[in-house]
Design goal:
The complex is a heterotrimer of chains A (342), B (288) and C (242).
Chain A (H helix, E strand, L loop, with lengths): L2 H12 L8 H20 L3 H26 L8 H18 L3 H23 L4 H21 L9 E2 L7 H4 L7 H22 L2 H11 L1 H6 L4 H27 L1 E2 L1 H4 L2 H14 L6 H20 L3 H19 L6 H9 L5
Antiparallel strand pairs in A: 1-2
Helix pairs in contact in A: 3-8, 3-11, 3-13, 3-14, 4-5, 4-11, 5-11, 8-11, 9-11, 13-14, 13-15, 14-15
Chain B lengths: L2 H32 L6 H19 L3 H27 L4 H23 L14 E4 L2 E4 H23 L1 H11 L1 H6 L4 H24 L8 H16 L4 H21 L5 H15 L9
Antiparallel strand pairs in B: 1-2
Chain C lengths: L4 E10 L2 E11 L4 E5 L6 H8 L7 E6 L2 E2 L5 H6 L2 E3 L12 H9 L6 H14 L15 H13 L5 E5 L7 H16 L3 E5 L3 H7 L2 E6 L2 E6 L1 H6 L1 H7 L8
Parallel strand pairs in C: 3-8, 3-9, 6-7, 7-8
Antiparallel strand pairs in C: 1-2, 1-4, 4-5, 9-10
Classes of the chains: A mainly alpha (342), B mainly alpha (288), C alpha/beta (242).
Chain lengths: 342, 288, 242
């Protein structure tokens, strides 16, 4: 090898694999984390806690969609399926058998992963549009089934039995929302940490390859079907965690809401808005759309529910028309291009 | 379970299926031309129904009379959508295309709910009403006439696409955009035409539906789902395929409701979709 | 010594069209076998059959004596077969380095090792200076080299190259030829689909000439050059300055 090439190789090998983000970005990140940790004590109203809990929850759910779609390229329009399974699993186990919701959380994750396999194996081989439509139909079907299934309360849904003692065991807090907040923060943090590691792992790289070009990926030794299902399982488990938490937060399960296409759509919108495929895109999307929704409901009363959807829809349309990769994509790209000396 | 009951279910299912087919043909036409699934299709149907409703409620015009106006308005809406929105989405990756039309649908649905409330509306005393009896079978007049108009629309569409120069231009653009362009067929114009026809068909279906169906902001969602199934079964881009697939779905839905639980009839159709799409990825009849 | 790759009676039909008919040849270890033929002769289809992207209607493919006919592409890749595509397939939303890392990950699960191998591969094809660019920003010639680097990062025993010189300017072709020669010196076995007669006549040890899916000659470049059937098929267009 000519000298210049050998030298360049030496330089390249000495570089970091993961470029260090610019200082201002790291500082901003640290400040945000600090703020999140002390948030409930800075903003003390119940509403501000509620708002942030929702943002954290949706940030987790949007990231779940990001894993299966943004990272792996499978556009699922049925994520609500796993949200509902998570919520119902923990609630049924607790309401009927007295099992702590913590165990219910794990059971929900397992059941969701299994559901992902059951749904994914026959459908993930379908091309993009066919798969998206299939998830839409299956989501609708699951909703219909739960609305007719008497054992889980059919259309009336289920109530989580109220327990006023041992709040951490029963995962219910009635005097303050602050414990919910830190639990939501913990769940979201765990989820994002897991995805952060995923993106830097062999699996994460292979999923992105699968997204960008399945044929090329196959020619490089990546088992396509298996990886698609794996991504689906991971995203299902994340969604399930959010579902269990949500059930413990609102203490009421309504199959029409839990399995609604609205939830499937919203997590998609948040991820696309913030930047599908980026790490923080879903969080940014949630941070924008949740307050939009909550405040429009406050300002516009009953019709607020529709106004936020109008804005959501238009926002997404505009993003897809002009910046389909989302808000953060440009930023992330610039960071990834950097190569810094150690 | 008498033979008459089954025949009744089949006939009424068939008639409903023709509506599904007419809604589906717009979807399939658009996809055949530009490989975009219009996830806002159901909302255009809803808009057509509301347009017919308001012509009646505010202008006293019966849907049979307002039909041409609704069709023209919807066709215009289709053209505007293509020019304003879809043209940009064509350059975006598939994810953005799906999310874009999805977002449009969400916005339209919410807008309808905001403007007109979620209340169910009906057109009382329409021009066509009542039932006819053919042998042992009872058929609602609106449904019968709707079925006829759907078939007529298909015939007209088929004639247009296969016998007129413009129609052949549509086919050419659908099969090979670049080759068609080289032969002097203006791609942009074909796209706009495709959307005009596709949404125009939805206008026909919506107007006819308004004579006997409830009108409300969410009404398009279920029709859209069934239309997706019809397009997948009939083959994306296959006009006749969507006619047969739509009819098939109507019959399956109706029979399923009769023989099993009525609330599960949609599930059966969905199961049909999954079965077909897994074993025959190009639909029952293949691609256009 | 048994050949590394053996193809016997390979046939593929699409409806009424026969893409490959009774294709047979073998590739010895360390050899370069060229595949030539006019457009539509079935060359890329042949690669698809060998690498598992399409199942053949008849015939067998043996890799080092083992039957790999009809195996999935990723399984075949794991047995040491790499390929490049005629219609280039970079991972557009990954950087150049990340692209090649995906290739290296076929052999190792350690990210650090994968990155080292990727960078070595990029150094080999002289693409290091673009290593932090996104793959979609590369020119055609650079994409060809990326595709090659990525395939090589899988540490293959056999590389199938589909039109490596296609669409590349004259100066870069010389560079690519040098790469192939170096690879041969390292003992890599290669099968190359080529349109550029000058290139393939100079590089290949043996050549398969396809016409309408059928092999019409399989032999040394001299055999092929003087074969009348080949000359007919090409209408005398094999005019190579020796």
């Amino acid at each position: 090898m000519p000298d210049s090439r050998a030298d360049m190789l030496k330089t390249a090998l000495a570089e970091r694999l993961w470029p260090r983000p610019p200082l201002w970005m790291s500082a901003l990140g640290a400040a945000t984390i600090a703020l999140l940790v002390i948030y409930p004590f800075v903003f003390t109203t119940s509403f501000s806690h509620h708002l942030m809990i929702l943002i954290l929850l949706y940030a987790l759910m949007a990231q779940s969609w990001n894993v299966v779609a943004g990272l792996s390229g499978q556009i699922s329009l049925g994520q609500a399926i796993f949200f509902g399974i998570g919520a119902y699993s923990s609630t049924v186990l607790f309401a009927k058998y007295g099992i702590t919701p913590w165990a219910g959380l794990l059971v929900g994750m397992l059941l969701s992963a299994l559901a992902a396999i059951a749904i994914g194996v026959p459908t993930l081989r379908l091309r993009g549009h066919y798969f998206a439509i299939a998830t839409l139909l299956i989501g609708s079907s699951v909703q219909i089934v739960f609305q007719r299934w008497d054992w889980v309360g059919a259309a009336s849904g289920l109530y989580v039995p109220i327990m006023r003692t041992a709040p951490f065991f029963y995962l219910q807090f009635h005097t303050s929302k602050v414990p919910y907040y830190y639990l939501a923060l913990g769940a979201a943090a765990a989820g994002y940490l897991a995805v952060w590691k995923l993106r830097r792992s062999r699996l994460g790289f292979r999923l992105q390859a699968l997204r960008d070009d399945p044929d090329a990926a196959a020619s490089l030794g990546i088992a396509i079907a298996r990886h698609k299902v794996l991504a689906f399982m991971i995203s299902a488990a994340m969604m399930s965690v959010a579902g269990t938490f949500y059930a413990q937060y609102v203490l009421v399960l309504d199959p029409e809401r839990l399995f609604s296409t609205e939830i499937s759509i919203i997590v998609l919108l948040m991820s696309v808005l913030g930047g599908s495929g980026t790490l923080w895109g879903p969080a940014v999307g949630a941070a924008i759309l949740v307050p939009l929704s909550e405040y429009s409901r406050i300002w516009f009363g009953g019709t607020g529910r529709t106004i936020d959807l109008i804005i959501y829809g238009i926002l997404i349309l505009l993003v897809c028309m002009w910046r389909p990769s989302g808000i953060l994509s440009l930023l992330e790209e610039r960071v990834r291009r950097r190569a810094t000396t150690p | 379970m008498s033979a008459e009951l089954i025949l009744q279910a089949v006939i009424s299912g068939l008639l409903m299926g023709l509506i599904y087919a007419l809604v589906a043909v717009g979807l399939t036409l658009i996809f055949g031309l530009m490989e975009i699934v219009n996830f806002a299709h159901g909302e255009f149907l809803m808009l057509a129904m509301f347009t017919a409703f308001w012509f009646w409620a505010l202008g006293g015009l019966d849907p049979m009379l307002s039909l041409p106006f609704v069709v023209i308005l919807l066709a215009l809406a289709g053209i505007l959508t293509q020019l304003g929105i879809i043209r940009r989405l064509l350059k975006a990756p598939m994810l953005a295309q799906i999310c874009g039309t999805f977002g449009l649908g969400v916005a339209l649905r919410a807008l309808a709910q905001f403007l007109w409330t979620p209340d169910f509306r009906t057109i009382t005393n329409p021009l066509i009403a009542g039932r006819v009896q053919i042998g042992p079978i009872f058929i609602g007049e609106p449904q019968l006439i709707t079925g006829g108009i759907c078939l007529l629309s298909f015939a007209a569409l088929w004639w247009f696409v296969t016998r007129t120069e413009t129609g052949l231009g549509l086919q050419a653009t659908a099969q090979d955009r670049q080759a068609a362009a080289v032969m002097g067929i203006a791609t942009e114009r074909m796209f706009a035409l495709g959307w005009a026809i596709g949404i125009g068909c939805v206008g026909i279906a919506g107007t006819m539906l308004s004579t006997f169906y409830y009108i409300f902001p969410e009404v398009g969602t279920n029709f859209a789902l069934l239309a997706y199934v019809a397009v997948a079964l009939g083959g994306f881009g296959n006009i006749l395929g969507s006619l047969f697939a739509g009819a098939l779905i109507g019959v399956v839905e109706s029979l399923g409701g009769l023989l099993l639980d009525p609330s599960y009839k949609t599930l059966i159709v969905f199961a049909l979709y999954l079965a077909v799409v897994i074993f025959r990825p190009y639909g029952l009849f293949g691609r256009f | 010594m048994s050949p590394l790759l053996e193809v016997k009676g390979l046939t593929k039909r699409y409806g009424g069209l026969t893409a490959n008919a009774d294709v047979a040849f073998d590739v010895k270890k360390g050899e370069i076998v060229g595949i030539i033929g006019p457009n539509g002769a079935g060359k890329s289809t042949l690669f698809d059959l060998i690498t598992g992207f399409q199942p053949p209607d008849a015939g067998r493919i043996l890799l080092d004596g083992h039957d790999i006919t009809g195996l999935r592409p990723d399984r075949i890749s794991r047995r040491g077969v790499a390929r490049t595509f005629q219609k280039l397939k970079p991972f557009p939303d990954l950087t150049v380095t990340e692209n090649v890392i995906v290739g290296a990950l076929a052999r190792t699960s350690d990210m650090k090792t994968a990155r080292e191998r990727a960078l070595e591969s990029l150094a080999f094809v002289d693409l290091l200076e673009k290593r932090n660019h996104f793959a979609r920003e590369l020119s055609t010639g650079q994409r060809k080299r990326l595709e090659l680097a990525r395939a090589l990062a899988t540490s293959p025993r056999l590389v199938l190259m589909d039109e490596v010189t296609g669409g590349v300017d004259q100066r870069s072709i010389a560079g690519l030829i040098a790469l192939v020669v170096e690879l041969k010196q390292r003992g890599l076995t290669m099968v190359m689909i080529e349109h550029n007669m000058q290139v393939i006549m100079g590089l290949a040890d043996r050549i398969v000439a396809l016409h309408r899916g059928r092999p019409i000659v399989f032999g040394t470049p001299e055999d092929v050059r003087s074969d009348s059937a080949v000359v007919d098929a090409y209408l005398g267009s094999i005019d190579v300055a020796a």
